[in-house]
């Protein structure tokens, strides 16, 4: 009986925490990073003391939002990697489109994730590291199995992709004329990402035809 009660309590806590994060994202997307804990509590239809029982302060809540965004991006990349469809160009386009949707549709959340707003630098680096791991796996998928070329390092090229995308996103956020165009972001980034992936393939001793459909069996 006690174990069942404890399990229900834990489930309820997880659901409430998810509800509070959802409310925080909604308010921050409307009001920006300066949104108050009072406004977030009101959006979640709870009292401020209830909000503070789950998050000690706004920095802790921001960290939870950052983790949610990180998980969403990593899950999107994993989906592209485990269910590859079409050519390498199409696969990379899908990956970039998912990220572009975040920075255009949820710019404040993207800033929390990748620019460290009220987020310790070490945590921001950890967020990037999680994304980089998925990008490295995607590059390995596109290049194939380069076991005969030990100098190939997918993580090195993944770091280049992540760095290029991060730098472009930072510029995008500062440029109002382009901040609302996910398609334009993808169009500009695709040649850069293609060049990096082509370099990875060359290191692995293979050539990628970006327009040729892949035939891949994913375990």
TrEMBL record:
Pfam families found in the cross-reference section: TetR_N (PF00440)
One Gene Ontology molecular-function label: transcription cis-regulatory region binding
Transmembrane segments: none
PROSITE patterns, per database record: HTH_TETR_1, HTH_TETR_2
Residue intervals of the HTH tetR-type domain: 14-73
DNA-binding region: 36-55
Protein name as it appears in the record: TetR/AcrR family transcriptional regulator
Species whose genome carries this gene: Nocardia panacis
């Amino acid at each position: 009986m006690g174990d069942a009660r404890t399990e229900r309590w834990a489930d309820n806590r997880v659901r409430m925490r998810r509800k509070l994060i959802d409310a925080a994202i909604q308010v921050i997307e409307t009001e920006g990073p300066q949104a108050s804990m009072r406004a977030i509590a009101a959006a979640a239809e709870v009292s401020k003391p209830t909000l503070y029982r789950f998050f000690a302060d706004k920095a802790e809540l921001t960290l939870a939002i950052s983790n949610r965004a990180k998980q969403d991006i990593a899950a999107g990349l994993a989906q592209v990697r485990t269910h590859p469809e079409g050519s390498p160009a199409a696969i990379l386009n899908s990956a970039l489109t998912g990220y572009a949707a975040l920075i255009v549709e949820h710019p404040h959340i993207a800033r929390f994730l990748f620019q460290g707003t009220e987020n310790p630098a070490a945590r921001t680096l950890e967020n990037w590291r999680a994304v980089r791991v998925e990008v490295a796996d995607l590059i390995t998928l596109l290049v194939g199995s380069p076991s005969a070329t030990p100098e190939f390092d997918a993580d090195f090229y993944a770091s280049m992709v992540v760095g290029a995308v991060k730098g472009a996103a930072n510029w995008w956020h500062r440029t109002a004329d382009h901040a609302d165009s996910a398609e334009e972001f993808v169009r500009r980034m695709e040649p850069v990402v293609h060049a990096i992936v082509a370099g990875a393939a060359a290191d692995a001793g293979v050539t990628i035809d970006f327009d040729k459909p892949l035939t891949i069996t994913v375990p």
